Amino acid sequence: MDKISDKLIVKFIAGKRLTNDDFVLLDKLLNNLKYKKETHYWLEENWQNSQSESVALQFAQIRNKIRISSLKSRMNRLFIVLGKAAAVLFIPLLAAALYYYVNQSTSAGLLTLSTQKGEQTNVILPDGSKVWLNVDTKLSYPVDYGVNSRNLEIEGEAYFEVEKNEELPFEVGSGNIVTKALGTRFIISAYPESFEVKSSLVKGSVEVKYGKNVEILKPGQQLVYNKNRSSVEIKSFDENYELAWKNNQLVFQLMPFEDVIAELEKWYDVKIEYNPTLFKSETLTVRFEKHETLETILKVIAKANGFKYTIEDKIVKIRK
Length: 320
Known about the structure:
The protein contains nine helices and 18 strands. It is α+β, with helices and mostly antiparallel strands.
């Protein structure tokens, strides 16, 4: 490859923003069979000479989390080529490498990064924005993210640190509301089973749309959208409490017992059987570290709320 092609590929795999002209040139380069083979050799040579480093999400994990129904065959070929990079590369390369094989269908393709119950992760998007995903969360965005828009959809809970780009606002859809930012830090909580969607601003400024209405939040403010009543409340929030999960802590503050159970099921990927009517008026206030076992947590909660329990495989049975 020539020097221009080399520089473009380096810029590409580093996850740096490409201009429209860059994408046109890259498209021609990667669709040329001769250059595609040369690019493979170039990438392998550079990866073999790279030093391993700690990464937040390795390719072996990504392979199990990325689901693009219309692009599976191309994805399989991609991961064969990228296998040696698993311990070296970070997420910006993922988005770039995906474009390598899907550039002809970017208008329709979506990437979905998901965590299961009991797991969390973080990711750097192609524009440099960072996202931390809580348990049982799905984050979707188009494969041409950062080219003409920065739109994402989320189910679950995530914390965002957004790179500033006045030309391309960062928008996160979460059911009934859309949170728009230029460069800021905020939290979205939008689990499908919850009757509330929350947008909490840590730093900067965000615009939250719901229906035909728009609210501008200031740092320390939280917008809570009630899906059942289609109503909105803006209030202050405790950053340490809302971000406890990101800091590997499980925190309950006067939390209703049924919500405590729901959190434990998500964090530890278990099914908890109990009689809700026996715990209807009970709440819990306590803080746990993420490394605590389910057994340890249940012992504390059982003592505080006066119940007994048994654990069989992934089923917990609670009784008064």
